[in-house]
Specification:
- The chain has helices spanning 12-22, 29-34, 38-50, 71-77, 103-106, 109-131, 136-139, 157-167, 174-190, and strands spanning 2-8, 61-70, 83-87, 148-156.
- By secondary structure, it is of the alpha+beta class.
- The protein folds into two domains: 2-86 and 150-203, Gyrase A, domain 2 (2-Layer Sandwich), CATH 3.30.1360; 99-142.
- A four-stranded antiparallel β-sheet has the order 1-2-4-3.
- The longest helix is centred in the middle third of the chain and has 23 residues, at 109-131.
- The two termini are 15 Å apart.
- It binds flavin-adenine dinucleotide.
- Residues 79-82, 159, 162, 166-167, 171-172 line the site of flavin-adenine dinucleotide.
């Protein structure tokens, strides 16, 4: 799995702090800008979180390039609606036999053989149909959900915080969880204050599931 942060709002924390301060500020834009030093930015961002004044975090955008994840995972990812997505098309791209294998399958030789043979069969039939003149958009109905895909996703910081709460949680499915943790790692490098307490709900309070985590499911 590859997760790259390919673009983001310049000075993401400054713009959010600026938005927060603006709400109670009488002066000009220049005065507003000058009123912000690093300590003040941190104070304002923490205050915004404490007061749940979360709309100020919508001013910072982050775009990721993600590859080597399965369609199982992108199907879950795109359920997050406050985001923009562009995904490699199976209508126009003749896909290769590149798939994700869950560890639970990978570690048992006998099971891995069953898995691989089903995938090989699906891809052979896919290729055969295309050779027989069936359009890619129809032949793809045979492809397994394990197939690797590429996607660009953009979310604002507010939606990312929500996304991380749900998808870094141990109750989330392992592949999207791995992806979410990688995304969090990347945004923390450029917006450490905004994402300082990002992660599963239990990082900030009681678990909404009201129970202990399920063991690692792979
Ligand atoms: C562990 C786990 C298991 C899941 N299992 C299933 C499952 O079995 N079946 C299934 O179908 N889905 C499942 N989901 C997906 C889940 O139901 C959500 O669709 C997904 O997590 C997207 O999150 P969201 O709806 O909170 O918000 P997003 O789409 O990320 O939107 C962010 C927030 O904006 C607000 N919002 C967005 N759109 C609307 C709207 N139309 N109306 C009102 N408010 C809105 C809400 O406050 C929402 O929380 C699962 C998710 C997780 C994390």
């Amino acid at each position: 799995m590859r997760v790259d942060l390919i673009s983001y709002t310049p000075e993401p924390e400054k713009i959010c702090a600026l938005a927060m301060r603006l709400c109670h500020f009488k002066g000009s834009l220049e005065e507003l800008r000058n009123s912000l030093d690093p300590l003040e930015i941190e104070r304002l961002l923490k205050k915004a979180k404490r007061l749940q004044h979360l709309s100020v975090f919508e001013h910072a955008y982050f775009s990721f390039y993600i590859e080597g994840i399965s369609r199982v995972t992108t199907h879950q990812l795109v359920r997050h609606r406050i985001a923009s997505y562009s995904q490699q098309s199976q209508r126009f791209v003749r896909v290769k036999e590149e798939t994700v294998t869950p560890v639970s399958i990978e570690k048992k030789e006998e099971i891995k053989k069953i898995y691989q043979s089903a995938i090989e069969n699906a891809f052979q039939s896919y290729e055969k149909l295309i050779e027989m003149g069936i359009p890619k958009e129809d032949a793809r109905y045979l492809l397994p959900q394990a197939i690797e895909t590429k996607i660009i996703v953009s979310m604002n910081a507010r939606e990312l915080m929500h996304f991380f709460s749900l998808r870094t949680c141990n109750n989330s499915q392992w592949e999207i969880r791995e992806m979410a943790w990688k995304m969090l790692e990347k945004v923390k490098e450029v917006a450490p204050i905004i994402f300082s307490d990002a992660g599963p709900y239990c990082f900030r309070g009681p678990c909404p599931e009201g129970k202990t985590c399920v063991p690692e499911r792979r």
